[in-house]
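Researcher: Please predict.
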Amino acid sequence: MPYYFSGRLSQHLLWLACLAGVAGLLASRALVALAPLVGVAAVLANPHLRHEIPAYFRNGAAMRAAALVVFLLLSGFYTSEWATWRHELFRSLPWLGVPLAFTLAVPLTAGQRLTVGLFYVLSTTAVCLATLIQYLLDPSTANEAISIGQNMQSITGVFHVYFGVMLALSCFWGLLLRSHPLVRPWLRAVLMGAAVLVALTLHVLAYRTGLLVLYVGLLAYVGQLFAKKRLSLGLGLLLLLGAGPWLAYHTLESVRQRTLSTVWDVEQYLLGHDINDYSLARRLAAAETAVVIIKQHWLLGVGPADAQAVMREQYAWKDFGLRPANQADVHNQYLNAMLGGGVLGLGLWLAVLFGPLVPRHSRQNPYIGFFILIQATVMMVADMLSLQIGLNLFVFCYGFLVVAEEARHKKSVEDDSLRSA
């Protein structure tokens, strides 16, 4: 019973949920599904739960996440795809469960949070290394696939877009964790090696989306260096960023094939050629189709559950010569939010994504800053929340970083006011 009344049971369950969530993102959908349930169990194991319940409703980050579920629920009044609506409502439950866990369970200690961060960085790097070895065992076959627009998945089966984003996050979080006061010197060297390995692998595997967010993040880091007046280091990194793509193009066959196939891909769309076998061209056609629908349903959208069906109806009017199997959905989170929810839905999503930048305490948190920057960038070229892994990745990081930071700050303010009283 002391284990329960001290709060350690709740804390350890939350810790277990975090570690299971990270492992699940990389290798097991079952663990991803179970992690929020363990988080809810951590909430129920909090001996002071009744006293803590109001903290959930005072947490702005948690309330913004809940607003997305409320909007989806209300969209049931004008949806026509009831089966899809019920499915979407069920898969959106992590928006409620994960923030609930990080506000009402006993918070993790600094050491436990560090363990979760290290586990994410090092386990992602391990999968990265294994995937790189798989590529090096047969690079010619992989390069041939890249030349026709196909990408290697991770060795554990994670789709390349999501894996590329996870690798970029791992790179930046690894660099940030090196300055953590609890990290030993030998571990700092390991984290630096992990960051370098991840950056190199993104180039070798020619992950287009991963490289995009990597370079955007590095440019932001250069801006931070200039702001801190570390001009020589900032200029050196800027020169390296300029030389990096050139060197990669002239030394890596995979990058060269990816570049040529990307240019050819876009040209097929611009010239009005057959685009059935071209990924980017199909995405551009989907964006054009979505814009037509958005102009007609700009206020509330067509309903999140109806978006796919309405896209198919619009393709019936203009199909770009695409076969039904190749008629893509929108690969842009902002367009997709407006397609399903109109101006209101887009506004809610922007509040969730950029809301953490409003309070000073979270805006100055570099972990949150890189998370938002990378997600905001990738969502211009991918609908990250359309698949469960993308939704789980965002919600877990949002809960672990944003919701927990908001809860910690409010708790600190309350404690200070009690001491001053």
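Model: The chain has a mean pLDDT of 91.
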